[in-house]
Amino acid sequence: MHNKKYFVLSFSILAIFFVAMLFYPLGQLILLSFTTDSGFGLENYQHIFGQRMFLQALRNSFVLSIIVGVLATVIGFIFGYALNFVALPKFYKRILTVLSSFPMFLPTIAYGFAMIYIFGRQGILTQFFGREILEVYGFQGLLVGLLIYTVPVSFTLVNNSMKYVDTKMFTVSMLMGDNPFKSFITCLLRPLLVSLVISIIKCFFMAFTDFGLPSAIAGNYPLLPTMLFNEMLGATPDFASGTVVSIIMLLPTIATTVLMVLLNKYNVKSNSSSQTEPKSSIFTSIFYFVVTAVLLFSALFMFVPIVLVPFVQAYPFNMTPVFHRFFDMLGDTQLMRSFYNSLELSIYTAIVGTIVAFVAAYLASRSPIAKQVSGFMDFLNNVTNAIPGMVLGIAMLSVFTGTGLQNTMTLLLIANVIYFFGTPYAMAVQALGKLSSNFETCGLLLGDSFMKTLFKVILPNMRHTIAEMANYLFINSMVTISALVFLVGIRTSTMTTRMRELQQFNRFNEVFTLALLLFVTNLLAKLVFYLLGEAKFSLPKFSTKKQAIGETN
Q1: Which of 114, 134, 262, 341 is most exposed, with the fewest beta carbons within 10 Å of its own?
Q2: Residue 474: which pLDDT band, with cuts at 50, 70 and 90?
Q3: What long-range pairs does 414-417 form, CB within 8 A, spacing at least 24?
Q4: Is residue 76 within 8 Å of 151, Cβ to Cβ?
Q5: Tens of pLDDT along 55-110?
Q6: Do 280 and 206 meet the contact criterion of CB atoms below 8 Å apart?
Q7: Domains (range + CATH), the chain
Q8: Which of 140, 99, 101, 141 is CA-nearest to residue 117?
């Protein structure tokens, strides 16, 4: 076995990093929430719970998030059912799969601005119908925007589970004389029950912690994220109250994460997907085609203002096409600085985040010290999945204000790596578990060093997963705002934080220019990472004639 001390050293470095940059700031934040002018006590909590506005924000956040979680899961189920159990044209299914992921390429704050230009007083649909068909500021607008944000995630979760549902059970159920409704409940809903509950919880968490959309269209509808921002960076900042609100926001997300971890143990698990060609009546096929097409078109309609506004003279009063204005805005030094900052930050997040997640996953799953460190790594995974971005940002703000890290790209990079650690880590653990356990042993017997085995065998066999990890980190870094809004400075402003600044001056032409630039960048990044994942690497032949090391990923 390879020298254990290098694995111990790697684990020690990772542990020190997360303790210093995650657990210590969180601990300080908890202590600050109990710190008052008279010492250590509950006065800050009593003050917050005595505010009517806070109680209303708490209620609104829970009600809105629960509704979003349920509706997003229902819509995600409809998409997944249409894809796996309804006879639809293959080209349409491919279109459905690809286009449904497009909303993930934009920050939620961009949805808010787009909805203003669609449903507001001068909106596209308002002009078409002659009246406002949706109250964009408040509950209705937030509900629609958050559904656009969460449905792609729900669809991914539900669709992945549906692929492993045994379609032969429907035939057995019919032979036993069950009616279609009973077959639907027994053969589909019951096997998917855990996945559906996980989807509801995940979408609840996303809606409960999102700051981008509420910052654009919450209006007079108070929510915890907007209240937290106002307490920390509003006209009259109250740091003590802000720390209390952040801790209260943290508690439900921890509870939902713990519940998701427990439910995952009972989730549908299989190594093979059903290959049965779906059959359905003409009526059913037409019904699901129309429903999914309408839902998809409704979501993608949000892109219309983003594409339209930068290329017209003055929306909505003068719709004369003016293409040079878009390129003129790209010459704006401040706009392009925020773009370059986001691009630089996302590239480094993809590189550093992938390395950190892979090293942690390897230590926890295949290293000589896996049994000793896997518990800590899984705990770390759960913590990073549970912490809202705003809470992480405030925790880091409370610790690193006045230090050399304040307002630096390094601090933004650290925040992103920590915030997005969980998903790439889970991807790497799953992929490493599929690789042959004999790779390292074969390399050792042939006299190869661990690093040689790693770069010539393990990483090439994981190239798809590595590309997916980097892609996830890059795109999420480009669209995030919640943690960064507390950590950016004048020189480190990113595209999403810059959008929020521009909103205050009603400079929506620049907002949509950045949104369009961000979308195109993420789309190109998706293509680049896909090509990297498909790139071929030559693998060394460790094998004998009887056994070859094959690609497993």
Answers
A1: 262
A2: very high
A3: 414/21, 415/483, 415/484, 415/487, 416/345, 416/349, 416/353, 416/473, 416/476, 416/477, 416/480, 416/483, 416/484, 417/349, 417/352, 417/353, 417/356
A4: yes
A5: 999 999 999 999 999 999 999 999 999 998 888 999 999 999 999 999 999 999 99
A6: no
A7: 1-30+349-538 (1.10.3720.10), 43-322 (1.10.3720.10)
A8: 141
